[in-house]
Amino acid sequence: MRVRPGESGAAASSWHASRQQSERAFLVGVEFASHSGSRTVSLRSTEAVAVEELLSRPAPRGGVPPVARAARDAASARLLADLEHQEFTPEESLAELRELATSAGAGIAGEMLQRRPKPDPATLIGSGKVEELKGAVASTAPELVIFDHELTPSQQRNLERELDVRVIDRTQLILDIFARHARTREGQMQVELAQLQYLLPRLAGRGVEMSQLGGGIGTRGPGETQLETDRRKIYRRIRHVQQQLENVRRIRGQQRRRRESAPIATVALVGYTNAGKSTLFNALTKADVLESARMFATLDPTLRHIQLPSKREVVLSDTVGFIRNLPHTLVSAFRATLEEVQRASLLLHIADVTSPTAGDQQIQVEAVLSELEVQDKPRLYVMNKVDLLSEKKRESLRDSDNVVHVSATTGLGLDKLLEAIDARIEEDPIQRVRLHVPQSEGKVLATLDARSVVLSRHYRDGFVDLEVRAPESVLRRMKNFVEK
Ligand SMILES: Nc1nc2c(ncn2[C@@H]2O[C@H](COP(=O)(O)OP(=O)(O)OP(=O)(O)O)[C@@H](O)[C@H]2O)c(=O)[nH]1
Ligand SMILES: [Mg+2]
Predict the structure, then answer these.
(1) In this structure, are 395 and 342 located in the same domain?
(2) What are the tens digits of pLDDT across the range 112-125?
(3) CATH of the domain at 148
(4) Which of 291, 320, 338 to mutate to test the pocket of ligand 1 (most atoms within 8 A of CB)?
(5) Ligand whose nearest atom lies closest to the CA of 417
(6) pLDDT given for residue 281 in this prediction
């Protein structure tokens, strides 16, 4: 299902949608190369495999032995240290920027890629390239230029002055998409906070230019309101939003404590944006979360109960996707949303097997997981979208304890996935017992049918003798009938 977020709802939003479509962006990719590409690639893939292998091993009972733990930490540290050099290729990176721009509702006016040894402090790209870009901007007449790289406030100002067009960077673009897609009050406040904090240092000497250049991508707040650009009002607004967020979080905390009184495990879906988390979530829960080819379709966490083959219940949580160089302000703004990930007993790391950058994406997701300090949580790797592979390739895939291949859209492999989740969850353990239940206890018998696996059943003298495998929480409710 392809749904364009923002299309449903009030007439105002369709007005916005049509206005946004007319906004055209010129994309600028930049590579600061200090070593050869091929070395990076081979280093990247070996490291990826090693780390994946290490991280995917289940933690033995009683914790991870010190040696294994040290090896794992060392591998993670090495991985993180290498991340800076393990960018996607500049072309792949630019392709991703194109997807991000489209997800923000922009049309593409043109693109340009520059390689240089190091950034120019004043304008990021060299002065010759600025001239060239000026020419391209003049002939393609975009509404804005988007740099595939972080810009300092002064670089952004200088570039706008030179090019006489609005300039934003990748972070601002991502913040804009988040602003458009946040639906809950909390999500909207988190994004607005991140946006205002990002904007503040960039306002100096820009008031006039900003108002001259008007609104559009990068200046839209949540709910597609215009972001505040008056310094003093921004400070006031930041304080206000922070207070509101505190209130929301207090309420969430209370709700969570209520939920935690039940022995139910949370299983969190994590993964790169567009990997298919929401599609998988819907397939497993029959829910109707927005699935979309656009990036960052999901921002607000959704929770649903599902029943595993053992008849145990777990809470499945769908949440925001990750991306490489996720703006730091956003990770901290979304810390509360990502609490479900931190509380989870098991992480399902969803990856898109068809993406040419799948390996890199996995490394990036692991990096964000480390930032959230959940790198030691057990996880299952779910390789999604196998329906798009050739039959031969599909048949060559082998599942293991930690890796399951699925297609969220066709349902292929979902049974195996549920079994794998079941095997990894320790909460509410399954017990095998015999029960002696009066036939008149209709409710008890119905519960057993719904919440246990019945291995045998015999009717005798007004009683039913059963042998079942059932979660502890279910058996606790029928203690009187369990045979010692
Ligand atoms: N062919 C195929 N497409 C899939 C599959 N799973 C998801 N998709 C498509 O991939 C795109 C992204 O899916 P989503 O479920 O929205 O991805 P997500 O991981 O939730 O993305 P964000 O919420 O943006 O982080 C959509 O166009 C889906 O239809 C699959 O198994 N096979
Ligand atoms: Mg989603």
Answers:
(1) yes
(2) 998 888 899 999 99
(3) 3.40.50.11060
(4) 291
(5) 1
(6) 95
